[in-house]
Design a protein that fits this description.
Two copies of one chain form a homodimer.
Chain A (H helix, E strand, L loop, with lengths): L11 H14 L8 H8 L3 H13 L5 E3 L5 E3 L1 H23 L8 H8 L5 H10 L25 E2 L7 E8 L4 H9 L7 E4 L8 E5 L6 E3 L1 H5 L1 E5 L4
Antiparallel strand pairs in A: 1-2, 3-8, 4-5, 4-8, 5-6, 6-7
Helix pairs in contact in A: 1-2, 1-4, 2-3, 4-5, 4-6
Bound molecules: manganese (II) ion (4 copies).
The first copy, chain A, binds a DNA duplex (30 and 30 nucleotides) through α3.
DNA sequence: TCCGATGTTTAGGTATACCTAATAAATAGG
DNA sequence: CCTATTTATTAGGTATACCTAAACATCGGA
């Protein structure tokens, strides 16, 4: 079936590949391996190779691909990926703020709709929301021109020394974890005191100004990104 | 490509077939011919036959189909069709009232999004709008349970006798005509005086309480449905 | 440096939803 | 009532996006 193609010669499937490459490539746009993509997209490695070859061979290629050496986005691919991420995060913000969705349900809906809204829809919800720069999980929303600030935050699990932090963002993909995080006051902007620990120990944190420490599960800790604060 | 399937074993394509059969079958649920469907969906007749056979052969068939004798919706098919029409009209109302879309642009966006929103999204926009019963073109919005009132209206082109009418609804599919209609004050609820005419004559109307008559183009007249009013 | 584990690609196949061209059924006109 | 036209179906083919299994590269150790 003629999978619905967007104007730019993209499709729902292609969009998802581009987004995955953007995310997995990270800020330095490291080459992404087939295995990493296969894992991320829950698709067989052979299917990944196929798609990457197609994307690289197109008239206006969306990726740079070399056999056995991974892929990177071309500038056209990066542009489209950021456009889709903008859609995703604007939709999440809209669902949360205008339609009163519970935080843990916005991601799934946005993951679908991001591929099907028009430029007008994008523009209208952005206007309705006052052109927001941050989504409900704390992630930056790319601008219409395709710019997105670097996240200066670090993973909570990478900090062993302890200290005081502000929560920058939470991962949006696992609804259960996200609901648990929110139920415990762990959301962007919240303050958090971390006890020093060894790599194998659980993370024990104080949220806000509560006196009793809270032990984060592995899943919860891995989904939190934080920024250090000077205490004053 | 695994065309996105909704929970009910439907898909964007199937949804559009079901909607077309609902509309073309009319209130009495007349059998719909392959040609009519081919025309409506801009798809080759052979493709229609193919799809109808598939839909009729399914475990839980969405249509009743007999070779050379057209199709009707099964009760499951009718249920789904009304669900999609509900999505469509709620989305149109939402785009118009909440996102301030121009009237002539809501249809195209709704035509796409109707297939991809969740039950939660449907429920949330319905709530936001106060559970509306009529969309911006004057069409009834099916209820959550799949009920939709009959339209008692008639086509403007069918009236030769003249008289005073209220505009019940306008067709939403042609953006240009719709914009023209709206620009001339022709929208649901507006009052309209029709001069008597012969079948070949153009329709000349007075809109609202304006004194100067307006000649409707064939396209415009065909897109208007009206209800007679007692003048008092 | 060769060897095997791991990762990647090729080869061949499926389902959806379209298409065109050829064929068959239904219907309408003489 | 029989044929010509219209309408519909069958047959065979395309593109997208997946899959599994088999073949092939790459790279880290021994
Ligand atoms: Mn998300
Ligand atoms: Mn997506
Ligand atoms: Mn519409
Ligand atoms: Mn549609």
């Amino acid at each position: 079936m003629p999978a619905r193609r967007q104007a730019n010669g993209s499709s729902e499937s292609i969009d998802n590949y581009l987004k995955a490459i953007l995310t997995l490539g990270g800020p330095q746009e490291i080459r992404v391996t087939s295995t990493a993509l296969a894992e991320r997209l829950s698709v067989a490695p052979a299917s990944i190779t196929n798609m990457l070859q197609k994307l690289a061979a197109a008239e206006r290629p969306l990726v740079e691909y070399e056999r056995h050496r991974g892929v990177r986005l071309s500038s056209a691919g990066k542009k489209r990926a950021l456009e889709v991420v903008r859609h995703h995060r604007l939709i999440e913000t809209f669902l949360y703020q205008v339609l009163d969705y519970p935080i843990e349900e916005v991601h799934e809906e946005a993951e679908r709709l991001e591929h099907f809204i028009s430029e007008r829809f994008e523009e209208r919800i952005a206007a309705k929301l006052g052109h927001p720069q941050i989504d409900p999980h704390g992630h930056f929303i790319p601008t219409m021109e395709g710019h997105m600030p670097q996240q200066a935050s670090i993973r909570l699990t990478e900090v062993l020394a302890g200290g005081t932090f502000v929560i920058h963002s939470v991962d949006d993909r696992d609804a259960r974890t996200l609901r648990e995080l929110e139920a415990n006051g762990i959301k962007p902007g919240a303050k958090l005191k971390l006890k020093p620990r060894t790599p194998t120990e659980a993370c024990s944190v104080n949220i806000g100004r509560s006196a009793k420490p809270f032990d984060l599960s592995r899943a919860m800790a891995a989904d939190i990104r934080i920024v250090p604060v000077e205490k004053n």
